[in-house]
Amino acid sequence: MSDLTRLTVAEARDALRKGETTSVELTEACLAAIEAAGGLGAVVHKTPEIALDRARAADTRLAAGEAPSMCGIPVGIKDLFCTEGVASQAGSKILEGFLPPYESTVSGQLKDAGAVMLGKLNMDEFAMGSSNETSVYGNAVNPWRAGNSEAALTPGGSSGGSAAAVAADLCLAATGTDTGGSIRQPAALTGIVGLKPTYGRCSRWGIIAFASSLDQAGPMTKTVRDAAIMGAAMMGHDPKDSTSADLPVPDFEAMLTGDIRGKVIGIPKEYRMDGMPQEIETLWSEGAEMLKDAGAELRDISLPHTRYALPAYYVIAPAEASSNLARYDGVRYGYRAPLSRGDGVTEMYEKTRAEGFGPEVRRRVMVGTYVLSAGFYDAYYNRARKVRALIKRDFEQVFDAGIDAILTPATPSAAFELGREISDPVEMYLNDVFTVTVNLAGLPGIAVPTGLDRQGLPLGLQLIGRPWEEGDLLNTAYALEQAAGFVAKPPKWW
Amino acid sequence: MSIDKDTAAKVAKLARIKVEDSELDALAGEFNAILGFIEQLNELDVDDVEPMTSVTPMRLKRREDVVTDGNQQDKVLANAPDAREGFFAVPKVVE
To answer: What is a single molecular function from GO for this protein (chain B) (predicted)?
Structure first.
């Protein structure tokens, strides 16, 4: 078979089961693609030996005829997931040299299902960023370019390496994590599908923590069907994560009928932002028309607290990060700064954390420390948690009124150039304006590529679903994907 | 509310992150930009709102209060920047 790396997960699974290819062949094709794609900066720790071992084991299992869907499928794993004996640094210098003695639940479930890990993927440091520019490994680069320009564009972030790797066919699919949009925003900027499940669907055990009440893992794939297949393999109850939901995971793929007749799709007026590019506006209304043509009913809705989502997020996420990142002290794992004569334990902490964390992580840890400090806890942190309840209530009210899913843009713009000077940190935060509400409310959300802008860059729409109803959400996304017929691929320059 | 240089220094100290004196003014400026953005939350009346605790009501699971793990000193120490004689080693804490 030619172009093995371009296969979707579903196509590869079917070909493997029919004996038209082997996992070793697929894996070798992906490893070769990775070797040739250094310019994308997507894969930061390559694991070819592990990959080929697992591929051979998968082929044995496939030959025995009882292999699950992910068996033999080559995937990339975001650097945020702890993988046993393989570097897991969260894109940070402070975890330099750390080799986890254990495997995260999600990557372990994929491994048990027979998926083949090709390597670890680039990301913003501790998942804090929207452009993959805060990574200690350097930038991941979007395989897409604007028109005839050779300027390097961001693949988005924080799961920028995952997005670039899937879009460039270096792996068939990848894991991502999403705290404020880190699966959906990079998926949209690279023309792939990204699913953030309901909070609690995927175990957080073994995933390096950023903001524990918001973090959620999910699949980044070439198609909605693949997101259904890989998503189901990643989800499920885990006694090691007390916030993991003890609910059965349905067969999402079997729910992809494409039939959305009678479904009610909400169009929230608050997502029509001032200064939103006309192209995004057009994409959004075209997407709505597609769902309507497929038999859904469109309804204008209001989510009045939307504009408070980003400010609430920038209290809650840094606060939780400052607690979670307190563990990086130069004692138990990772980096310890060189010390001067006479330095005590406090100097060790302060120097280690100053040198080990990059500027954005330092800034957020300190903002979090401030909003949690004595005298400000109620004014900032508790207020933000209450605003979060209001944002969640907005969604509950529209779902109670009969809305099945909500359609919004995924990002306020197409991929932008790497290396832009940004003097105000708040400006970068605006990238998450359409996605962050979903994390605060704990809902499932999915980004689906639906068009190209006038420079030929991919644009995506977001669908937001009811809690725990990823199956229904995926089916609506499937209908949108079928109608949009997005098949464009970036021309290979790397 | 505006954060001055002294407050920035205090926050850095609390966070155990060394910040050079020359960088404190810029840091205070960044804090002020972010906190200015957060100020919008004060527009809302949240007096009667309960803070959100979970997506859907969920009972926190309980487990038996028993030892399930242990006896792996080597693994625990394997990633330490400085481990000696079965301990994590740090600079002198007590004079």
So the answer is: ATP binding
- Dist CA A146 CA A105 (whole Å): 39
Of B16, B58, B75, the CB nearest to A245: B58
Nearest CA in chain B to A311: B38
Burial class of residue A411 (count of CB atoms within 10 Å of its CB; 0-12, 13-18, 19+): buried
Q: Is the dihedral of CA A320, A326, A328, A333 positive or negative?
A: negative
Q: Closest by alpha carbon to A122, among A50, A186, A210, A179? A: A186
Cβ–Cβ < 8 Å for B44, A308: yes
Chain B residues within an 8 Å CB radius of A211: none
φ and ψ at residue B88, rounded to 5 degrees = -75, 130
A314 touches chain B (CB under 8 A): yes
Alpha carbon distance A158, A203 (integer Å): 19
ipTM entry: 0.95
Q: What percent of chain A has pLDDT over 90?
A: 95
**Residue A295, by phi and psi: left (phi above 0), alpha (psi -120 to 50) or beta?**
left
- The letter for the amino acid at B64 is E
Residue B9 Cα distances to B2, B6, B31, angstroms: 14, 5, 12
User: Cα separation of B7 and A135, whole Å?
Assistant: 29
Q: For residue A480, what are its two tokens? A: 């949108």
Active-site annotation holder among A69, A104, A107, A158: A158
Q: Kindly report the length of chain A.
A: 494
Q: Provide the β-strand partners of residue A45.
A: A120
Whole-angstrom distance, CA of residue A217 vs CA of residue A230: 11
pTM of the model: 0.97
End-to-end CA distance of chain B: 41
The nearest alpha carbon in chain B to A361 belongs to B17
Rounded to the nearest angstrom, the minimum Cα separation between A388 and chain B is 6
Please report, for residues A258, A263, A299, A474, A489, the alpha-carbon distance to residue A405 in angstroms, rounded to integers and kept in the order given. Answer: 14, 8, 10, 10, 28
Q: Is A182 a catalytic residue?
A: yes
How many H-runs (helices) and E-runs (strands) does chain B carry? 3, 2
Cis peptide before A23 (omega within 30 of 0): no
Residues 6+ apart with CB under 8 A from A147: A455, A456
**CA–CA gap between residue A92 and residue A361 (Å, rounded):** 9
| Three-state SS annotation for A91-132 | CCHHHCCCCCCCCCHHHHHHHHCCCEEEEEECCCHHHCCCCC
Enter the tokens of residue B91.
């600079």
The pLDDT assigned to B95 comes to: 66
- Please pick, among A130, A131, A135, A182, the residue that the annotation labels catalytic: A182
pLDDT digits (tens, 9 = 90+) for A103-142: 999 999 999 999 999 999 999 999 999 999 999 999 999 9
pLDDT over threshold 70, residue A1: no
- Both tokens of B34, joined, read 């972010």
Q: Residue A173 is encoded by which pair of tokens? A: 């699919």
- Flag if B49 and A390 touch (Cβ within 8 Å): yes
